[in-house]
Predict the structure.
Amino acid sequence: MERIEKLLRKAQSLPLLPGVYLMRDKKSKVIYIGKAKRLKDRVSSYFRNQESLEGKVKKMVSLVEDFDFIVTDGEYEALVLECSLIKQNYPKYNILMKDDKGFSYIRISNDEFPEISAVYRKEEDGAEYFGPYLGGYGAKKLVESVSAIFRIPTCKKKFASDKKQIGRPCLNYHLELCMGFCSGKVDDSRYRESIENARMYIGKGTSKALSNLKSEMKKSAEMLEFEKAARIRDAIKAIERIDSKQKVVKKGKNRDLDVFSFAANNNIAAATVLKFRDNKLADKYEHIAEDITDLNDFRDEFIRHNYIMENEIPPLILVDNEFESQEVFEKMLSHQKGKKVTVKVPQKGENLELVRMGYSNAIETLNLKIGRKTREESALGELSNLLGLEKTPRRIEAYDVSNYGEEAVAGMAVFIDGVPKKQFYRRFIIKTVKGVDDYSSMIEALSRRIERYNIGTKGFDKVPDLILLDGGAGHVSSVKKAVEKSSFKDVKIFGMVKDGRHHTRDLVGTDGLMSLSARRTAFSLVSKIQNEVHRYALGYQRERHSKSALKSVLTEIEGIGAKRSANLLKHFKTIDNIKNAAVEEIAKVEGISLKTAEQVFKYFNS
């Protein structure tokens, strides 16, 4: 309480003027930035009555050790400064949508039979990229459209001119969404023709693509290429059909606009953003936030912070309700864009319909989140009761060992509140164990995990509430002995036991087996965890084995050892790319001389 009283005294000495405040933790790191019309009143409210604070605010205040403030000439200047400081500091407790949305690209691969896909970043891989698009939604929808229009295969089959995967076409062929290239009855030129038309459609847009296709159809008919003309005619009809079905076309004078709608249930809120460009829905994204105590405050902060990371500002922004900063926010965006930007709450007509549509999407997103959250909380509660834990385990870490020959690896999967968090997954190459020894391998993985926690390595700096091992009583007993004097000595450890068909059956601890059969939600969660950590460990083992096999092929070449083979694979990604590379290309790889490059080329092309 001494800390809070000290902060309150400092806050009460602030002026009753507009400004920006920066909350700092014990390491002096900025964890929250806010603006205020009256600094003294706003900042004091955080420290005056601790019992009244809830959710995110309460968590943030519990970490505050000090704060700074900057007085501004007015509320507008405070808003501009707040945005600038947030962009510089990325505070933990400000709403930043950088993980929820971003730019996307459409990629056309540089293969003999190119594939079209939506991706989140460009690579130096020789492929052709279009974009960036506002977000994943627009890029994915465009890929779906061009694939359907030009009947391009969307399956995972790999085609080659000398040996096609000939077989029975899938359902897409019968629905006239695919040309059925896998049947072996379609010429290679037909595939490439479709890719070229798709490239034109993506690059030039609907109107120019239609104009070019109509000219091409007429030309083909004049040259008596009736089959080709018919294909182009069908593509034109498909474009017109898809274009007419484009959901939600904004017909008013404002061709570009953003729509914000919000929904809340208890302390969970959902925001939906619809982006219209050229009168059509170009992108949509949702954001879920927990520990929200006031939807109006969330709306205000979300809308303001949305444009901190967003470069494209439309002339019209529609919002479902008024928010505190609306007037100064409109002024700031107008200045930022260099043109008038209008922010308004529509009361009737098509604009109101768009806001309502956004609200329907926000409600659906919220319902999905609440449904998942309820199931996960139920499963964790049931698991906690089964294992006799004092509290519900928020962070669960699962471990599995995968062996291939003499090599072993281990995988660590992390579930937080019953949800897999892949950013915290880690993998280990077992270094000290000789031969197949699951117990010793598991001990090594846990020991290294604990060692990294002790030194504060990022990603390892949290103690789990529960550890689950893919194994039986022997695994549990061995690992418990190994960690009993470590910083993980109080963490509960159990094994996940499988039946004869490799399916999850029971949990096992030092007191014996605990059946999951009568606890369906706990069984589903444990089964999900066991399958996930097994998949992760096995995938890593296969990845290493695959790389090892590729390197062994390359090391058969004169002058190529382990290091050079690794450099070749890093540069070209696949053996096929190395096979198809010219001598000059191979010689560009680090450590590869022209003479060695000629040896590599000769090996694959003699």
About this structure: The chain has five domains: 2-94, 104-156+168-244, 257-368, 395-525, 555-605. The CA atoms of residues 188 and 546 lie 31 Å apart. Residues 104-156+168-244 form one domain.
